Structures are given as structure tokens and as C-alpha cells.
Amino acid sequence: MSDTTEAAFQPFKHFEHRGWRAVAERYGPAFSGATGQSIGPMLDALGVGPSVRLLDVACGPGDASAAAAGRGASALGVDFAAEMVALARRKWPGVEFREGDAENLDLPDAEFDAVLMNFGVLHLADPDRAITEAFRVLRPGRGGGRLAFTVWVPPPETVPFAIVLEAVEQHGVPNIGVPPGPPMFRFADSHEARRVLGAAGFVDIGFRPLPITLALADPDALFQIMLEAGVRTSGLLKAQTPAALERIREHMKQRVAGYRVGNGADEAHMLPMPAVLITATKPACA
Ligand SMILES: C[S@@+](CC[C@H](N)C(=O)[O-])C[C@H]1O[C@@H](n2cnc3c(N)ncnc32)[C@H](O)[C@@H]1O
């Protein structure tokens, strides 16, 4: 991992790096059912098909890269967690994955027709720099040069985050266990996203709501995945006392139970987790 991030957020970047390396195997089974719902819309927005050269930044288990390859694109997935890259290579043997830092891509200028980042930007210590890097590696305009990325809408709309934050607020200590980092929901604010993308040189900036749902079989599953398969939420939960953690767990279980649909073997808990798909173009004259 290279360290180009401003000094203030270096501890956060190291925390995220350690965290993603540790949860690599658990992240996909816990969250891909939800994060995978945005892959089709992103690839459509980017016009991904045969002969498109696509970069998937912060690729995690590589599902978006694999979906792009499935459409005939030449895809490269990059992630800074070695364990994520190893997992992606095992899961999708025909697709190319490399270790790399979104904030300092070891890739030539103007190499890609399309760059995507599925729920990656909210984990970066220096997202503005990653957007500048995406701009640099994109080919200018004329059918190429498209960026697409997704972010979660802030709570209360994103129910899983609302539930965990509310449970900690009521039964534990908020704002501990995670070094200070950039605001997680910053790019869901269209003014802020437009400002950062515009400053990087992007034009034709668009926003589209994506109505994603996190489906859980068991009402206790949200606590388990936030504790064991996330990074920021895991840090927050693991910093609580055992007694507080038990109360948080019970609170979360009861709140998730309120989202039950079906009965018996058909029972599921459907938690709204809306996202925003942000698109932008590198102009032909860049
Ligand atoms: C929430 S996961 C998203 C994974 C995948 N894009 C998906 O949709 O499932 C965030 C990913 O960002 C990666 N990541 C965080 N900071 C990074 C950085 N500076 N450079 C590259 N990858 C990074 C993590 O290792 C992790 O795999």
C-alpha cells in the first residue's frame, strides 16, 4: 500500500487496510447480495460491452470486473487488500486483478474507456485524490472516458446503518474504535460530488437513485455481519464493553425483526439500503 494520503487520515487508511485484509473472506457472503444490485446499472451507465477497457477500483471480491468481462469487456480489478485480490483471482480465474491503491494508481495515463468504483469511495482516506486518479487513467471523451461510482444514502434512509448507529447511540459509546476519516456519506450530497468531480475536470455529471435492499434470513444477522464482515462498523462495535455489546445486539435484533416478510421457511428481513449512482465524463478536450 502506498501512502500518498494527507497525514491527518493516515491512521484511518492503515485501519481500513488492516480491516479489509482481515474481513476479505467474510465481506462477500455478507454484503455482495446488496452491493451486487448496483453492478448492472453501473455497467449500463458506462456502456460496457465488447472492446471496452474497464478499470474496477477498490474491486473487493471482483464481482463487477467479472460482470464486465461477462459482457465482453477487458476488465482489470484493483484493490489495496492483498487478501481481496487473492480472493478475486480465485473466484474469477479468467479476469485480471492486481494489488493497487486507488489514490495512487500504478497505471498509465489515458489507458481506460471506463472506470467504476462500487461502494469504494466511502472507504478512502483521500477520495478527491482517487477521483483525480480515475480522471488521469481515463481516455478523453468520444465514447470512452466515463466514470461511474456508487455511494450509500445516509441514515435514516439506509436502514442497516441507521440501526447500528442508533443501537450504539442508545446502549454504548458512539465515535470510538475508528480513527478520524472523511465523512462516509459525503458523496451522496450531489452539490459536494459535483464540486469534487468538476474540480477534477469531469463534465456531464449525473445522479441516479438505486433502491437497493439488504436481505437477511435471521434478525441477528445484521449484528453479526456488522461485527465480523465490515470495517468501520466492526471497529465501532468491537470498541464497546461486552455488556453494552449485548444490549446493542438485542436492540439490533428487535429492529431488524420489524422488517420481516413471509413466514417459516419463506421468512426474510428486507432492509432498505438506498444508494446513488454517480456518473461523469472526461471531456474530449482534456
Ligand atoms: C465495501 S468494499 C467494496 C468492494 C467491491 N467494490 C464491491 O462492490 O463489493 C471496499 C473495498 O475498497 C477497498 N479499498 C479501500 N481503500 C482502498 C484504496 N485506497 N485503494 C484500493 N482499494 C481500497 C477495500 O480493500 C475493499 O475491498
Structural descriptors:
10 helices, globular, binds S-adenosylmethionine, Rossmann fold, single chain, alpha/beta, 286 residues
Strand content: 15-25%
Oligomer: single chain
Task: Briefly note the structural class of the backbone.
Answer: alpha/beta
CATH superfamily: Vaccinia Virus protein VP39
Classify the fold: give the CATH topology.
Rossmann fold
SS element count, helices: 10
Ligands present:
S-adenosylmethionine
The overall pLDDT, averaged over residues, is: 95
Question: In summary, what is this structure?
Answer:
The protein is an alpha/beta fold and 286 residues long.
Structure, described:
By secondary structure, the chain is an alpha/beta fold. The protein has a single domain (3-281), classed as Rossmann fold, CATH 3.40.50. It is built from ten helices and ten strands. It has helices at residues 10-35, 39-46, 63-70, 82-91, 127-137, 159-171, 190-200, 221-228, 232-238, 242-257; strands spanning 53-57, 74-79, 96-99, 114-118, 146-152, 203-210, 213-216, 260-261, 268-272, 275-281. It has a seven-stranded mixed sheet, with helices on both faces. A three-stranded antiparallel sheet has the order 7-9-8. Helix 1 runs parallel beside helix 4, helix 6 runs antiparallel to helix 10 (242-257) and helix 8 packs across helix 9. The two termini are 29 Å apart. The site of S-adenosylmethionine (SAM) has 20 residues, from helix 1. S-adenosylmethionine binds at residues 16, 20, 32, 35, 58-60, 64, 79-81, 84, 101-103, 118-120, 123-124.
